[in-house]
Amino acid sequence: MDRRHFAALALTSLAMTAAARPALAAKPGAEWDGLVKVKAKRFDKVYLRPGADFRGYTKVILDPTEIAFEKNWRRDYNNNQRSTSLEVTDRDIQRMIEEGRKSAAEILQKAYTAGGYPVVTEPASDVLRVRTSLIDIIVRAPDVMGPANVRTYSRDAGEITLVVEARDSLTGSLLGRVVDDRTIDDFTMEWRNRVTNRMDFDRQVESWAKNSVKGLNKLKTLSPIAG
After folding, report:
1. Phi-psi region of 158 (alpha: psi -120 to 50; beta: other; left: phi over 0)
2. Which of 11, 16, 25, 28 pairs as cysteine with 67 (C-beta 3.0–4.6 A)?
């Protein structure tokens, strides 16, 4: 993914800082906001509301993806640069956020549509509201337009945490939440640039999007959710 894109995804969770971020900081255990932790194969942590019934949902509303970088990432990155021309600026951050949101929206819409869930904009009894946040983003080599002869090599593009919330679109009732931490890793040392960053980022988001759709299908077979 474009480094800015990757970072953008990260920034997507800024709006979510008021919601999921504090909860994550609290290190939720077996219960979280009335949800109960369940075993999951596709994600690190999955919490569901006992009694929730997902069988009636046939469409989704996709809220704009929220993005947030790791709190000290930019400071620490800039402190390690030899020149101010290599530092991440406010403008770089805003660009990354905008590009990341756009990319995430396209990937999510494609995945849900392909999975049989039309994306709509109006709440209804058969519509599930999905909020996706990408937070605690760390980019190993953000794409700032510095000297052309400067290259950064790394085994991974960075780190990112996914948070997904599922709510009833009419009542706003929280039905489930997913948290998944990933290192965007190729396992090979390579030159990091906007092309490789964007490819790695898109690959991870696509995987999350497809797994989210598979998870929703699985929840239908398990509904109503046991307490």
Report:
1. left
2. 11
Contacts for 210 with CB less than 8 Å, ≥ 6 apart: 111, 115
Find out whether 206 and 132 touch, Cβ atoms under 8 Å: no
Among the residue ranges 65-69, 97-101, 115-119, the one predicted with the least confidence is: 97-101
Residue spans of the domains in the chain: they are 3-222
* DSSP symbols for 114-155: HTT--B-SS--TTEEEEEEEEEEEEESS------TT--EEEE
* DSSP-based helix, strand, coil % in the chain, nearest 5: 35, 30, 35
Residue 7 is predicted with a pLDDT of 38
Three-state secondary structure call for residue 80: coil
Q: Which among 13-17, 87-91, 219-223 has the top mean pLDDT?
A: 219-223
DSSP state of 37: E
